[in-house]
């Protein structure tokens, strides 16, 4: 159990699960009013040992323990690569004096203090603090926080929903994982919305498509706006914003293709004299979506949209036959659509 340890090393780039673990430690501090008084967060990137000891050695105030969070200190002890005189790479030990002082102190942390080292990246396997923790598992615990791999993301969604007292079909969990990607904080936000929406009933694929797709559609609308207005830089920024949030490249291409298919249908029908409200009913669109697509469709002729659909088909084939790296393929698509 975590609360048996005195020293914790939380490292890895999954800030969501790491924050959840820290939240659990805070909750274990008892009365929130006194817990706050006995919790200290320190920036460890340039922290001297004396200041760390000052806070960690302090006596708890009206409580039986203190919680001291130190962010970014242990990365200072990751070995670095340096070219030797012989021209070969060799490991260089940074901050050797501070490292030794810290290791000596870790054996003398007061039993009333929970000392937590928080690192936003995975530490090197030969980091001195990790080696210390490996030797003293009774008083130190290491936890690596990494988002689950893509093929396990659906299982994470199912487990998370069950923890919150909900239920979801596997196919719906898979759709949700595919739509959001490995951004666990964003996934958790969507899970919360779906659970509240279903109010105790199992979450189905249609629920995911209705609630989650609406948020994704808004982003795709903006991207397609930039494409239609030939704003290359803005379109690339919007695309990479989605990719930074771990959106799947194939999913993005599917959403963009769906949007242009609707644009073609709406433009074709409007060219034949059909009004937007009639088009909306014929295509089964939400009134807002129909108006938005009708506005975007005015940037194109039917022939231009047919050309875009052919281009999207080419990119889809390239991705599925692995002729192009997915992100590069989408970048080239954006450039092609905004410069021709």
Question: Quick summary of this structure?
Answer:
With 340 residues, the chain is α/β, with parallel strands linked by helices. Helices cover 57% and strands 11% of the residues.
Verbal overview:
The chain is of the alpha/beta class. The protein folds into two domains: 2-144, 3-Layer(aba) Sandwich (Rossmann fold); 204-339, Zinc Finger, Delta Prime, domain 3, CATH 1.20.272. The chain contains 15 helices and seven strands. It has a five-stranded parallel sheet, sandwiched between helices. Strands 4-5 form a two-stranded antiparallel ribbon. It is elongated and about 80 Å long. The chain starts with 6 loop residues before the first strand and ends with a helix.
